[in-house]
């Protein structure tokens, strides 16, 4: 979460402190292939090798989240995910404070937004609406600021799209909490347009955007079979590329069977 993704530009003497976009992409391939234990081990090692870098702990948490989805057990490794995301957010905040150029600032803001976005998702999933709202607000602030420094950061749009969509389709209690703390309302159509763009143009987040876009399309597909078919095509392409990922296969089975 390169041309469309944040890239850290550091002096040569400092470059050993940070992972590369290729490191993140390699580990993410393991996630999408369904090799979740290997992905977790990869990112745990990355977090240890680069102790200032938020990428390792953020994506180690992502691997656990995918593992929970594969197991169909939302509570699986919940505490470990929370700890990793807190570590990632702290590292990103320190990296932002130490950033010496705009590229470094964008990278730090992107990973701060990523960690807070995942943490908001986890909090909402487990019924902690106030924490979810606070982390979602922090994610929005980080990613919007990243776009101020680099308007070409397509990957930065993913978290903002999820933010908008979640607010637009939230339940009554979540909307009340959002209004109380000033989050406002969301716009589902803006969110869908952003999801589509990241699914087509994103670099680090493209596959995740395709997956999330497909899920949103299914939710929007009541009375519109074309949206369901589009979602099935998107996930069908992911399943063809990553046939051992159980999450994609189960989505196709369940969505095809639904009326």
Distance between the termini: 34 Å
What integer is the average pLDDT? 88
Q: Treating each run of at least 4 consecutive H or I residues as one helix, how many helices?
A: 12
- Return the CATH class of the domain at 12-190: Mainly Alpha
Can you offer a commentary on this structure?
The structure is a single chain. This protein is mostly helical. It has a domain at 12-190: Serine Threonine Protein Phosphatase 5, Tetratricopeptide repeat. The chain is 73% helix and 0% strand. The chain is built from 12 helices and no strands. It is globular and about 50 Å long. Residues 1-5 and 7-13 have low confidence and may be disordered.
Outline the fold blueprint.
Elements: H1 21-32, H2 36-49, H3 55-71, H4 78-98, H5 102-125, H6 129-149, H7 156-168, H8 172-180, H9 188-201, H10 206-220, H11 225-241, H12 246-257
Helix pairs in contact: 1-2, 1-3, 2-3, 3-4, 3-5, 4-5, 5-6, 6-7, 7-9, 9-10, 10-11, 11-12
Short description:
With about 260 residues, the protein is mainly α. It has helices spanning about 20-30, 35-50, 55-70, 80-100, 100-125, 130-150, 155-170, 170-180, 190-200, 205-220, 225-240, 245-255.
